[in-house]
Amino acid sequence: MGEPIAVGVLGAGYVGLVSAACFAEVGHRVVCVDRDERKIAALRRGEMPIYEAGLEDLVRRNAAAGRLTFETETAAAASACELLFVAVGTPSLDNGDVDMSQIKSAMEAIAESSADDKIVVIKSTVPVGTGAMAEALLRSKARSGVRFDVVSNPEFLREGSAVHDTFHMDRIVIGAASPAAGERLREALAPFDAPVLMTNRESAELIKYASNSFLATKISFINEMANLCEKVGADIGMVAQGMGMDKRIGPSFLNAGIGYGGFCLPKDTRAQLFIAENVDYDFKIMRAVVEVNQLQRQRFVRKVRAAFDGELAGKTLAVMGLSFKPNTDDLRDAPSLDIIAMLRQYGASIRAYDPVSGPKAAKLLPGVPIADDPYEALRDADAMLVVTEWAQVKTLDLDRAKAALRRPLVFDGRNVFDAAAMRAQGFRYFGIGKS
Ligand SMILES: NC(=O)C1=CN([C@@H]2O[C@H](COP(=O)(O)OP(=O)(O)OC[C@H]3O[C@@H](n4cnc5c(N)ncnc54)[C@H](O)[C@@H]3O)[C@@H](O)[C@H]2O)C=CC1
Ligand SMILES: O=C(O)[C@H]1O[C@H](OP(=O)(O)OP(=O)(O)OC[C@H]2O[C@@H](n3ccc(=O)[nH]c3=O)[C@H](O)[C@@H]2O)[C@H](O)[C@@H](O)[C@@H]1O
Q1: Considering the domain 232-430 in this protein, what is its CATH number?
Q2: Which region holds residue 90: left if phi is over 0, alpha if psi is between -120 and 50, else beta?
Q3: Cα(270)–Cα(402) distance, integer angstroms
Q4: What are the backbone dihedrals phi and psi of residue 409, each rounded to the nearest 5 degrees, phi first?
Q5: Is residue 141 marked as binding?
């Protein structure tokens, strides 16, 4: 590694905290700031506010070595650091537009508390033009003699493997209006040893939306293909495998299921539509991608209802997995929440199991018992619904599961089980895209 650089990270969420810990691990001196005092107090005690493999070790080790400190005031980072990474939230507004309030408040705090030149790096996912807007805002509020350069450096990590992804990035995208600022960021990120794409700010900002939109498109495409498979007697697993063997297509992101969820793909696809609408562009593919995703959750519920001849009142359904994907406790826009709400509207009683997100889920799902033990959730249930493909769900002892259930009925929303084997074992089995 080159010389250590003093780096501030604003926002200690999935992106900010993971980035801060990884920057410290490669030798930088990192000040991580969050305005949430409870989060910072917990982090100072070595307690993680999120579940992410390997994160706790990384944070504790680097905090103990003095390379990683946690603060609640932006000034603590602005006074000590040359580079300030902004990793605050950019949630959706009700109309689909991006809520920029956290970005604006972060920029104002930086402007107020910086006494010397700063390179401000926007890691949050933001609409095109944000970098230019933020630079103008910072410069208009800067103390005299202080210069701000804003660089776009979108983040591509996935929840559940965030630490691994940070140390094995496919690419680093740097969008800078000032070549010197872009080069300085490249030096800071050199220890991560990933290919670097230097571009202008607008392209960098759009690369992020384009990437997430394309991933969402792959998922909605394969889900529609799965729906077709069910009608023509084909198997989506085989179809995806055959498609994925073509190097131009690639095998990843072709798992059919109940649609994408999480904090990012849903909000970023909606934002992509809004961004296009703002410049009078009708982005037809994205509209379909978003619609197909919502319908996929409804189709799953329809399938369950149909198996009970349309009558879910009085039925108990065991939902296996609640987080929007395995290895995370994140429930933001998790398909499970939508699916459970629809099933309850039809009168079903729900019991759920999740190995990690149970405590968070309990607050969002009043009246839904959440078990720590999968077989407990299955006991006397009329069906098992696989919603998240946790390893604990994939490796269930199926004899025990069958013995626990009132009826051997399985709706596998993630195709974790083999249809033929399940049927041979006496289950009535419904997958996605399987005839
Ligand atoms: N979650 C993910 O996997 C990924 C998220 N992103 C993007 O990164 C950004 C952050 O996402 P998450 O980390 O998931 O959000 P998050 O909601 O988990 O964390 C954001 C944090 O920023 C803090 N915050 C808000 N305003 C602040 C301020 N002025 N100063 C200091 N702290 C402040 C909040 O208290 C919160 O702890 C979003 O734009 C998101 O789209 C990008 C790639 C992956
Ligand atoms: O901008 C972001 O926040 C991030 O969004 C996604 O990461 P993440 O939301 O953590 O999770 P993914 O692994 O992409 O899964 C998203 C959803 O798609 C679903 N999915 C994924 C893949 C697939 O083949 N099929 C499928 O239904 C998952 O179950 C999950 O609900 C992107 O993969 C990251 O590159 C990006 O940085």
Answers
A1: 3.40.50.720
A2: beta
A3: 41
A4: -120, 125
A5: no
- Mutational test site, ligand 1, from 10, 14, 70, max ligand atoms within 8 Å of CB: 14
Give yes or no on whether 6-199 and 232-430 have one common fold.
yes
DSSP 250-317: -STT---SS---SSSHHHHHHHHHHHHHHTT---HHHHHHHHHHHHHHHHHHHHHHHHTTT--TT-EE
Nearest CA-CA partner of 356 in 382, 324, 384, 386: 324
Q: pLDDT value at position 1?
A: 62
What's the CA gap between 354 and 322, in Å, rounded? 6
105 in Cβ contact with 133 (< 8 Å): no
The CATH class that applies to domain 6-199 reads alpha beta
Residue 435 confidence (pLDDT): 78
Please state, in angstroms and as integers, the Cα–Cα distance from residue 378 to each residue in 65, 112, 218, 309, following that order. 46, 56, 33, 21
Following CA atoms 58, 59, 62, 66 in sequence, which dihedral angle do they give, to the nearest 10 degrees? 180
Residue 97: phi, psi to the nearest 5?
A: -70, 165
Bridge partner list, 110: none
Indicate the domain borders of the chain.
Answer: 6-199, 232-430
Give the pLDDT means over successive 10-residue stretches in the chain (435 positions). 90 97 98 98 95 95 98 97 98 90 97 97 96 97 96 96 97 98 98 97 97 98 98 97 98 97 95 92 97 98 97 98 95 97 98 96 96 96 98 97 98 97 97 93
157 known member of a binding site: yes
Query: How far apart, in whole angstroms, are the C-alpha atoms of residue 371 and residue 352?
Result: 6
ipTM (interface predicted TM): 0.98
DSSP letter assigned to residue 27 = T
- Tell me the C-alpha distance between 64 and 59, whole Å: 8
Whose alpha carbon is nearest atom 24 of ligand 2? 253
What's the CA dihedral at 178, 24, 156, 325 to 10 degrees? -160
Ligand 2 and 297: CB distance under 6 A: no
Question: Any residues with Cβ below 6 Å from ligand 1, and which?
Answer: 10-16, 33-36, 39, 74, 87-90, 102, 105-106, 109, 124-125, 155, 157, 159, 263-264
Q: Which residues contact 44 (CB under 8 A, 6 or more apart)?
A: 63, 70
Catalytic annotation on 32?
A: no
